[in-house]
Amino acid sequence: MASIRQERVAELLKRELSILFQRESNTWFGGLFITVTQVRIGPDLGLAKVYLSFMATPDKEKALKEVEAEGWRVRKALGAKVGKQLRRVPELNFYLDDSLDFVDEVQRALHS
What average pLDDT does range 36-46 have in this prediction? Predict the structure, then answer.
């Protein structure tokens, strides 16, 4: 169970990362449409698990690798945004959120 502080920091990171991915997607990721679906942060606020969803991308694993390769740049830009609110910017681990794909599969199965 996450504490109130963890939830607030996770929400702050989710909001700022969403804006960052929207603004810098063309420059850093070749125009990928990236959605931050969820952020979970550890109790010490030192590690954040960022769940991403990619729209209109045939190879989502490759897209995730691109984001991971630029993770240092994302963290640096995030630090510039939230540096006044957080003592230390957490390490970012990126994960593929495939819940939307799962929902599509279930809907297709129900409508068959």
Answer: 94
